[in-house]
Amino acid sequence: MNNATFEPGGPAARAITSSMQPIKKADFQFEQARHLLWRAGFGGTAGQIQALVSWGLDKSVEHLLNYDKVPFEAATGESFDKDIMRPLGEEERRLYRKAQQAKDEDALAKARLARQNAEQADRTQMREIQTWWVKRMIETPRPLEEKMTLFWHGHFATSYRTIEDSYHMFAQNNLFRKHAVGNFGEMLFAIIRDPAMLAYLDQNDSRKNKPNENLAREIMELFSLGVGNYTEKDIKEGARALTGYTFRDDEFMFEKNNHDAASKVILGKPASHDGDSFVRTILEQRECAVFIATKLYRYLCADYPTGSKKRDAAAKSVISDLAATLMASRYEIKPVLRKLFQSQHFYDAHIVGEQIKSPVQLVVGAVRSLNTPVRDLTFLSEACNAMGQNVFFPPSVKGWDGGRSWINTSTMFVRQNTLVFLLSGRRSQGRDGLSDVEKYDATKLFSELADAYPGASADDVEKMVDAILAFTLGRTQPASRQTLVDFVKARGGKLDQKSTVELMLLITALPEYQLC
Amino acid sequence: MSDMNPLTMAFTRRHFLHRGLVLASASVALPQFLHASAAGLPMPLEGLTSMPGVPEDHVLVVIQLSGGNDGLNTVVPYQDAAYHRARPGIGINEDKVVKLEKSEVGLHPAMTPLREMYDAGLVGIVQGVGYPNPNRSHFKSMDIWHTADTTATGEGWLGRYMDSECCGQGKGESGRPEQPASGSMPGIAIGQAAPLAMQGVKASPIAFENADLFRWTGKDYNKALSEPYDTITRQEVGVNSDPDTNAAFLVRTALDAQISSDTIRKAVAAKDRVSYPGGDLARQLKMVASMIAAGLRTRVYYVTMGGYDTHAGQGGEFGRHSQLLGQYASAIRAFYQDLKVQGNDGRVLTMQFSEFGRRVGQNASQGTDHGTAAPMFFYGPMVKRGVLNEHPSLTDLDSGDLKYTTDFRSVYSGVLEQWLAADSKKILEGTFKPMAIVTKA
Questions:
Q1: Residues on chain B touching A427 (C-beta within 8 angstroms)
Q2: In CA terms, which of A384, B138, B297, B347 is 20 to 30 Å from A31?
Q3: ipTM attached to this prediction
């Protein structure tokens, strides 16, 4: 096994590379495998990292990409009720109209009460679906699947606040899962049929003689082309193409009578254009591939732009390459990810350890990499909300900006305190009743680290601290390291259960712990 | 070099802070964002803000009543027979109403704690506030109020205000917006997460439920962790490190968080100046008053009181709604008593809203259902006193709901222009005739 080493903080001497050539096989060691797991998933244990090192770069990337070969329970949602917010049936509507005409206050009040109860039950189910997803992210042996599902959720951002139908949100989530590393084109064809998206962007209000432009606009502006790559006329024509695309209950429905089938010109292409044709025309634009490649780059690789000329030039070149790959593969996602995950740019010292963890990445990553107990999924879900990432409730159709926008002085405390909760069970008000039972057990962490970093053992405090720092941070400032070593030495120089928790509390409070 | 020893550096910084002086040493590069005001500690009322053209010391407190407060039983049109006809069970009788001179409306009896303030000219009431095509969904309507946009899209109105005016945020060499001065907190929300209203593009409001949460809870696990924690979170970006990296950004923010935390917890721990009643709103307003007393450079505070979704068992003169209003009124009274003792009452404008009012007619459960227009309240010596406009008609209704007379964005516009000297057209992305809210700015 390789000695994993860490370097003191500071900029790498070499300028960043934009090369998309794969790294040499011999260069895929512990640090690289660790980085790959953090980006293609939510981080991993030292043991998992070592497994990847032993497989080598190619096999590791294939294992992560071809996750359908890894058995895991399908997300069928059998435990969720699809009928809480079902529309009224024929008979119910008839009775309601009758009550309205007769001004039957009693019946109307009953109907309103039933509606309120349904809304409350649905909100409860939405919270259940939230915790279900966080649990899935924590437990999955297919981390890239959930990581990309989360990506598409942020990309095709739809919020329960508007939809108010938890089952539609769940169905949409599964749509993202289905196409997570599939084909972006297929995803786009599917999203214009998705009830949650159609409701979110007011498609039900769209009429043949008065098309609603919302869906057409957001598809082009936010989902595929980006601002500046289409005109207002294209939006109007796109809206016409999408007329008739609607849904009833949980199913997509094409209302032929409401569809404007006359000829249209979209992005310079004249045709009778229905929704599918609109999407196809968009996909033919190179700008679409660039737009998607840019978003993938930001999510998996680095912030862009950063303002640094050299970094941005390198990123631009890489994005261009990824876009070309995406077009050549006719929008298959895997070839793009494969290329990125093997590239020299991806493993450059400027990229590794420079991404700010999203709230979900922080929470799920801590459980997965440190083996902390889960303790309370609702608490973790609410903590992500306090940190700015309430899944299923993106703040707008633009999704989450990510990067530095996650960080301010109060979210810093929430981030630190969520780790305190995971490691000790302690909340800010009162103690978790289970904390006496569920202590953090670092046995597995230590034994795996001893394997990965020869010399690191619970008996040699300095070497173990170095190993933990290298594992959790990749590298760190010497200043913090000495403080940590001094702390453990002052506590008797031994890493027992309590002093281990204390050490981990300090490490997870480091500003650098927010990076991956 | 001894200056580079992290323990010495940490000690030296603390030393600086206690003295209130900042000494620049050749070998210790001061973080670029610290400036002379005692390394970020607030000086009471001195240089509250560096916003050019803005009245230096004006503070806005926003109170959100969540759930849809029943405006009709808060500001009662008791002289209108239609009101009593619509609410045989939960209506407020004329002899119970807190009468307001020269007005056809009165307040719910539970609002009696505000009587003195009202008579002293510290209360302004705008009736019939709403917007076209009212939405009766809690989420959607609240988002509309927060974004000042009837499609509920975009950033929060206060966030846009803080983006456009606040804190001299320019762009550093990196092209990224500079971080605001250490310890400056232009917007503070009490609660688990900052409300959408406060979210801007750059503006990043702080939110915490209580001062205890705005600190590291690891210290509770073992007090011995305090010192190493302080050392590792009050680091500075090394002189040899690239200041533009995310790592450097995080180090700076971590330091900022510690300073802000110290400031807030010190402010909130100060001795009470007046006594406050019970209830969550009083608790929050007391915190706000303490932060104002401590001289925090915060311009906007946001507090929330829930429970107003009174579909069933709302009660009339007594009951659930009455209890809520009682807590509300007594909290505000204590808040302004506190501010007066501090000498800060003239600086603080408080506004209150809810995401919608409720239906005119009571329902079959002795309650009311989601409605539309409702009154907004304003507090402070600077407000235009009294009932500022007419009550919406109780007979010309929109399917049983009040028709709004005043667009809420006109009200926002008034607050932005008259109290915050801000360009409301730019911030609200539209022209809304400002309602006259403030008389003495």
A1: 217
A2: A384
A3: 0.92
User: According to DSSP H, which parts of B54-136 are helical?
Assistant: 71-74, 81-86, 115-119
B307: left (phi over 0), alpha (psi -120 to 50) or beta: left
Residue for token digits 């969520």?
Answer: A418
Q: Which of B217, B241, B257 sits opposite A420 (nearest CB)?
A: B217
Gap between the Cα atoms of B39 and B17, Å rounded: 6
For residues A106 and B363, is the Cβ–Cβ distance under 8 A?
no
Cα(A447)–Cα(A208) distance, integer angstroms:
66
Q: pTM value?
A: 0.85
From A332's Cα to the closest Cα of chain B, the distance in A is: 31
Q: Where are the alpha helices (DSSP H) in B211-319?
A: 218-221, 226-233, 246-269, 280-293
B162 touching chain A per CB within 8 A: no
Query: pLDDT category, A245, cuts 50, 70, 90?
Result: very high
Instruction: Check CB contact under 8 Å for B232 and A510.
Output: yes
Of B198, B216, B217, the closest CA to residue B206 belongs to B198
Strand partners, B300: B60, B187
Name the residue type at position A344: Q
Out of A390, A424, A515, closest to residue B250 by CB: A515
Q: Give per-residue pLDDT as tens, B43-102.
A: 333 333 444 445 568 999 999 999 999 999 999 999 999 999 999 999 999 999 999 988
Domains with residue ranges and CATH for chain B:
31-428 (3.40.720)
* B189-207: pLDDT as tens digits: 999 888 999 998 877 788 9
